[in-house]
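Hey L., structure's done. Input below.
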Amino acid sequence: MTDTASTPNGGAAESPSLNILAQYIKDLSFENPGAPRSLQAREKAPSININVNVNANPLSDAEFDVVLTLNAEAKDGDKMLFNVELAYGGVFRVTGFPQEHMLPLLFIECPRLLFPFARQIVADATRNGGFPPLMIDPIDFAQMFTQRMAEEKVRSQVSANTN
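Output:
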């Protein structure tokens, strides 16, 4: 059964829908190069640097592969304690949305749905590596998207000025 709604011209339009068809680990890496010494108690907490990236690729007109990449590195001074990298993907079916809503859906809403699962995988990997579980704080994907769009705009303006 398909949801439809009337359009002003009397035709039928699909109700907007966003469905997760599949979720998967594309790549997972955990490095603990100093083990077992890296597992010793320390006086101060290590510095942790976390990088986040989102990419989306069309699989068909209505299906998209969205990959959330998390990279967390813990250091004690200049010594790496651990490095965990995760590329966690989801296949999404997106129908009935206006074209201008597609990028925000793919780069804000889809990663927001994937994040709790990716966060748990990172926490489990660090715990299984001998460290306390790394619980990554919630991420503001809307702010990330806005920043990325601003950077793209600047980049396009710079390239237009150099041509």
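The domain at 17-135 is CATH 3.10.420.10 (Bacterial Protein-export protein SecB). The chain has two helices and six strands.

-- N.
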